[in-house]
Amino acid sequence: NAGVTQTPKFQVLKTGQSMTLQCAQDMNHNSMYWYRQDPGMGLRLIYYSASEGTTDKGEVPNGYNVSRLNKREFSLRLESAAPSQTSVYFCASSWGQGRGPGNTIYFGEGSWLTVV
Amino acid sequence: DQQVKQNSPSLSVQEGRISILNCDYTNSMFDYFLWYKKYPAEGPTFLISISSIKDKNEDGRFTVFLNKSAKHLSLHIVPSQPGDSAVYFCAGQGGSEKLVFGKGTKLTVNP
User: Are strands A64-68 and A10-13 parallel, antiparallel or unpaired?
Assistant: First the structure.
């Protein structure tokens, strides 16, 4: 029972390089999310996809792009990495966008990204 | 503007005692609240939630209390166990807002 799987787990990038974080969920969820967590900060929403074929900006979208490839997969791309994007990135999914136990958000294990 | 505030970055308690983690929110539209638990090098996992129509929700050793007039909620863990040592995030949701997380409180339960 994999849940939410994200790759890679660790990555070091040079400033200006690009990379894509991959995420897949096997829970047949409609909604998917990308969060970042920085020291002393909570989880901040970068982008989300309410359903297949839609994507929307979250709280901190600058410097990122996303693709909802299909219902299972939601990727996050850094086109030109900056040191300020050094962070831990979490992919997550939920059945829907509404409130309540049926729409609990489930997280992946995280991807540690360092930009030097 | 921090909509969900966890003012205590850390908390240390003895095994068997009660742990109380606090959370304040400013957004009056929030009507659903959750607590997530996070171990190092793992993703957050859902712990317990509460709707604004309730003032208490209990699940085993974990109880969340909601005081709407004070815009305050708390998570009680009784009795605390060393395995409860983790970072706990409070989160709120309501209106058109997506889930908003606090900065987290690191709980250490000492044997």
Answer: unpaired
